[in-house]
Design brief:
The complex is a heterodimer of chains A (410) and B (239). In chain A, 55% of the residues lie in helices and 18% in strands. Chain A has a 6-stranded mixed β-barrel. In chain A, a hairpin with a 2-residue loop joins strand 4 and strand 5. The longest helix of chain A has 44 residues. Chain A is elongated. The mean pLDDT of chain A is 84. Chain B has a single domain, classed as P-loop containing nucleotide triphosphate hydrolases (Rossmann fold, 3-Layer(aba) Sandwich). Chain B is 32% helix and 28% strand. In chain B, the strands form 2 sheets. A 6-stranded mixed beta sheet of chain B has the order 6-7-8-3-9-10, with helices on both faces. In chain B, strands 2-1-4-5 form a 4-stranded antiparallel beta sheet, with helices on one face. In chain B, helix 4 crosses helix 5. The longest helix of chain B is centred in the last third of the chain and has 16 residues. The chains are: A alpha+beta (410), B alpha/beta (239). The interface between A and B is medium-sized, with 25 and 25 residues.
Chain lengths: 410, 239
């Protein structure tokens, strides 16, 4: 008996019991839909992480100020000014694995151009900051050394700010006012996209560090020589861990921290931050994997049950097939194929449901999820395997029937 | 008459029921000539069903030998017997045993499917077999759309389609009214005249009189073996 003949006869018998077929496949449908969603979430998380690492740089770490204690209350990260521009310079000089170390101070403010305005992040950065973030210019130029030293009134703006203020016009050479101070836009940046938690990286204006401290963000906690953060870029991703240790060592020395005292700064690795986000998606995927596993198991048992019923119902048919020449293997193949057809039908419905649900969730919840062809292959493989595994015993039972007994069966 | 298609020597079949051994067939010695039309008769428990199962290669004997078409089949395993049945024997049952969801055509094709006959040839041969039983115009009907007599004709076409050397019919008229039954017997006689050996199992003398030779079984043994010098000619008015 050829496979095609077996398949046709399997579909025939499944069609004869439509409702039964539908109910039996339900477990597989749910299982496969869960497999699809699980892989979609997993792949989405992975891809998002890679995008982010590409966007922020896997070999980048950020050093921020440590916590301060005032009257017994700990005030949180970044509240104790400790980092200075001299620290950044020293790091770059003393740690060979550092490619660039750049200082930054940040705040927010209203930016005005003509009769439009926009509220955005304002970052004062030292030379090398954009390099440390692998952030390239879309037009114009970056800050010159002279502008840095003389606190020049120049700005480099992010893509979002460019769109909001200039609405398609060329911002380079225009004058914007930040806190009533006029600045000349000398460059615009390429788009970076969003962080996993939805912050728009392109909604920012960069000023020279000195300018920001002196003319815009003055009077804040960033007094004197202090910085909000130092962005450190290691020469390669493999060097990140080693660099982190050396940065810690150098800064502890410079800040004269005794061995048993805690650091007055915090080193954050961007890969770690992203990892934490990916973790929650991974938990979700694990949950779905459990649902998928249980559903496929229950679905498989359902298929086995129905196949056993089917073998009993069709005992005479089996006897007749044997009488006219079916070998045991022919009967075996017929029933295994029927079980596989049953589970594959469930699998296909499950794929449609899972893919639809995934796309809907991606749309509604804004999760990044990807229906990968590999997930569909996996689902088809899984449901087929369930059919073979759970169809085997009923098929074996059918093939072992005695033709005489089977023909007599009422 | 010296070309036997069936030769059995001391063919016996025992069953174990619990701790008891039932001797269903005690040792059958019989030879059936090629092209003969034989009726096997006897009450239930006489061994007629057991001998039919053995002659039809559905069962293997406990002892003795069975030569079918010159080949010793007594020691063959299940799959070899399946293949043998497929090539040499056509079965007709009392309850037709058609696949309910398959058309007449596909029912007739079934033995060819297991004989690994290519699709196109399968179609052609099934159509021929249906034409031979007078059902060429019913090829695409389902069994539920056919009368009892028509269903049995489909079953006979299925038995014929593999060009068997032997047709075994187990109470083929048992589920039919007398007139339809006679029509079916007429068909068997016609097939027999074309050279096919027919063995008919029945408990009705009315049916057995169409055969040329009648074997009577009782208590697991062959008791009488009569030649029917002038078998009745089944002639249904409707033919």
């Amino acid at each position: 008996m050829t496979l095609l003949d077996s398949l046709l006869s399997a579909l025939d018998s499944l069609r004869a019991n439509m409702l039964r077929t539908a109910l039996t496949t339900l477990g597989i449908v749910i299982g496969v839909a869960a497999v699809i969603a699980m892989v979609a979430i997993g792949v989405g998380a992975e891809r998002r992480m890679q995008d982010l690492i590409r966007g922020l740089g896997a070999n980048v770490m950020v050093v921020i100020n440590g916590t301060s204690i005032g009257g017994g209350a700990r005030r949180g990260a970044g509240t104790r000014p400790a980092l200075t521009m001299n620290d950044a310079v020293a790091l770059e000089r003393q740690v060979p694995s550092i490619q660039v170390a750049a200082g930054a101070v940040g705040g927010t403010g209203q930016v005005i151009y003509g009769n439009t305005n926009w509220f955005t992040r304002i970052e004062g950065v030292s030379n090398g900051y954009l390099e440390s973030r692998d952030w390239s210019l879309a037009s114009g130029r970056g800050f010159s050394g002279a502008e840095e030293r003389s606190a020049g009134k120049v700005a480099v703006i992010g893509q979002t700010v460019a769109e909001k203020l200039f609405e398609g016009g060329d911002p380079v050479g225009r004058t914007v006012r930040i806190m009533r101070v006029p600045f000349t836009v000398i460059g615009t940046l390429h788009a970076k996209g969003q962080t996993p938690w939805g912050r728009d990286l392109d909604d920012v204006i960069f000023l020279p560090l000195t300018t920001a401290k002196k003319r815009v963000l003055g009077g804040r906690a960033v007094r004197g020589d202090y910085l909000d953060s130092i962005t450190v870029k290691a020469r390669s991703a493999e060097l990140v861990e080693q660099t982190e240790e050396e940065v810690t060592e150098v800064l502890r020395q410079r800040h004269r921290i005794r061995p048993d005292n805690p650091d007055d700064f915090i080193v954050r690795n961007i890969a770690q931050i992203v990892e934490a986000r990916a973790e929650s998606q991974r938990t979700m995927a694990f949950l779905l994997a459990s649902v998928a596993g249980v559903s496929l198991l229950v679905g498989g048992i359902g298929i086995m049950n129905i196949m056993l019923v089917s073998v009993t119902e069709r005992t005479r048919e089996i006897g007749l097939r044997m009488a006219v020449g079916a070998a045991r293997r022919d009967i075996m193949v017929q029933f295994v194929i029927e079980a596989v057809a049953l589970s594959l039908i469930g699998g296909l419905i499950g794929i449609a449901l899972g893919a639809g649900g995934t796309l809907l969730a991606a749309e509604v919840a804004g999760w990044q999820m990807v229906v990968a062809p590999s997930a569909i292959a996996l689902a088809v493989g899984f449901s087929g395997a369930v059919g073979v595994f759970f169809g085997w015993y009923p098929a074996l039972k059918a093939s072992r029937l005695d033709p005489i007994e089977a023909l007599r069966h009422e | 008459m010296s070309d036997p298609i069936i030769v059995t020597r001391s063919l016996a079949r025992d069953y174990r029921v619990g701790t008891q051994v039932v001797h269903a067939l005690l040792g059958l010695d019989v030879a059936i000539e090629r092209g003969d039309f034989v009726a096997i008769m006897g009450p239930s428990g006489s061994g007629k069903s057991t001998s039919m199962h053995l002659l039809g290669c559905l069962d293997t004997p406990s002892s003795g030998t069975y030569l079918l078409d010159g080949e010793d089949v007594s020691g063959l395993d299940r799959d070899a017997l399946s293949s043998l049945r497929n090539r040499k024997i056509g079965f007709v049952f009392q309850s037709f045993n058609l696949l309910p969801r398959a058309t007449a055509q596909r029912n007739v094709e079934l033995p060819l499917i297991y004989g690994r006959v290519p699709r196109a040839e399968r179609r052609r041969r099934a159509a021929e077999a249906l034409a031979a039983v007078g059902l060429a115009d019913r090829a695409h009907h389902l069994p539920t759309q056919l009368s009892g007599g028509q269903m049995q004709r489909v079953a006979i076409a299925r038995a014929l389609v593999n060009d068997p050397v032997l047709i075994l019919a187990d109470e083929p008229t048992g589920a039919l009214d007398t007139r339809t039954g006679t029509e079916i017997m007429e068909l068997f006689q016609r097939l027999n005249r074309s050279g096919i050996t027919v063995i008919l199992v029945t408990h009705e003398a009315e049916v057995a009189r169409f055969a040329r030779r009648v074997l009577h079984f009782r208590d697991g043994a062959l008791v009488t073996d009569q030649l029917n010098v002038a078998p009745a000619r089944a002639e249904a008015g409707a033919e």
